[in-house]
Structure formats: structure tokens, C-alpha cells
Amino acid sequence: MQEQKYILKNISSFEPKHIFECGQCFRWEKEDDGSYTGIVKNNVINVKKVNNEVIFYSIGADNLEKLVKEYFDLDRNYEDIKNTLSKVDIYLENSINYGNGIRILNQDLWETIISFIISANNNIPRIKGIINRLSYKYGNKIIWNNKEYYTFPTVESLSKATVEELRKTGLGFRDIRVYETTQKILNKQVDLEELHKEKDTKKIREILLTLSGVGPKVADCILLFSTLKRFDVFPIDVWVRRVMNDLYIKNEDETKVDKKEIEKIAKEKYGNLEGIAQQYLFYWKRDTA
DNA sequence: ACCCAGGGTCGTC
DNA sequence: GACGACCCTGGG
Prior knowledge:
This protein is of the alpha+beta class. Helices cover 50% and strands 13% of the residues. The strands form 2 sheets. The protein has a 5-stranded antiparallel β-sheet. A two-stranded antiparallel sheet has the order 6-7. The radius of gyration is 19 Å and the shape is globular. The structure holds a DNA duplex.
């Protein structure tokens, strides 16, 4: 494996901090020099923004330029999206200014499913730890600059882990969910290839909901953050509930706000861009909390 | 030491 | 449709 380098010039809407710390991914770590290093498929990538250039280095199987283009959603015009959404109201405009460099990644569907099953009633540092331990135990090692990295386990590899072994990685009560979902995908009771061919978002959502550990919130995250890439979903977690209540609903007790009410407001205000609107709001609210 | 919350889901009523 | 239980861990 040979190191590759790729430079992206004059790119707008690309801020590593915003992209990697907006809660959509769990496998990127900040380096001392301000760059970020992460594992994407069978590659390790380092990303650094210097002035108007984004510099990528990688080691791994895939062509770096092609990988970057796909993974970072470079074919989409985020300036257009931001212009449209900024006109909705001052709240969204402010949150977009705050997270102006966000891009929604095209992450591997299988990895996204497992990662967000793990995310249930969990916090981001612990989610990252669990995924790292799963990768260490069931993924492949890549050595780069004298450091060890581990790829996310394949379906086949993870399917060999028992529930007890999964529990040891710190999954807690999610062990059985990860186990069952892995088996179901291995047997192709849920066929991920077929899922990509389906056009109707609601239909894909229904299929995802048959997986153990996948409820409405996790299904929406999978639809939004994976290669399925749907923006007509609105994942509602504690932070989104909080920000939507603070901005629009103003209920004394945010935990009592009806999800249906939030969904209605989101659809009315943000339309078919509600998914990405959610991400600007989430990042702003969580980062300034 | 203790308590709380965290990108929710599941089983039960 | 509402309600509590659920592993675990970092931070107050």
C-alpha cells in the first residue's frame, strides 16, 4: 500500500471541525496539528485545511481522489442548500453560520447501521470507544506512520462474535441488538444492496425498522448519514427536541414535547431539506450548550 | 462517594 | 399510546 496525496482547491462549505464534530461520524480523531485522521472503508485518511485548500493524505486500497469525492459528498452544492435554508428564519440562518462548513458524509451503510444502534441512549465518547474496540477485535489492522489503525469489521467478521464477546467490548444492553442485526444482514433477510436500489424513503425506513435496535431515530440517522443519503428525514434526539422546543414550541418541559409536533414544524419550515437543517441545528445547539 | 445524562429501543401494560 | 428498564462511563 502506497501513500496518496490529494489537494482540493477553492472548495466552499468544507470545514473539517464542522464535518467531523457534528455528530454524524465516530471514527475521526483530531491531531495535534489541527488535522483529522479517520478510517474510511479500508483506508486511513488525514484531512487538513490550510487557507482555502484541503489537503488529504491516505494509505489504503482505494483511489484517494475518488474516495474523497464520494465520501465527502463533493457533487452536492451546499451553497445552494444553505442559501435556501437561510431564508427560512433567523434561527436557522444563525445555526448555518455557526456550522457553515458542514457536509453530510456518505458513510458505509453497514457501518452506519451498527454505529447508530450503538448510539442509543449513549454518549459520543463512549460510542467512539465501543466502535474502536469492535474494530480492534474484529477489523483489519493498517499501520501508518508507526501507528495502528483498525478498519470497521465486515458483516462476516462481526457475525462470528458471540453475544458474550460483544458485551465485553462495552456494548451493554445493545449487545443482543448488534448480534441480531448482524445475523439478519448476513442472512440477507435485510439485503443492503437491494436497499440502495429502493427509491421510496418510507419504504427503506420500514425495512430498517425491522432490524433489532433500530427505531425511528436510528432509522432516520441511517437514512441521512449513510450512502442512502436522504434529506427528507428528521432524526429527533434529546438535542433536537431541545433546540426545536427552545426556538418554536417553548414548552416548560421539553421532554413532554410531542415528536409529531416537532416533525410537523420541521416539514413545514425546512421541507425536503429537513435532514440537513437538523444537522445545522444539532451542531449549533450541542456545541454552544 | 453519589448522581446524572447521554444522537433511544424494547417489552409490557 | 404511555411508561419504566436498560449497560456503561465521563463529568458535575
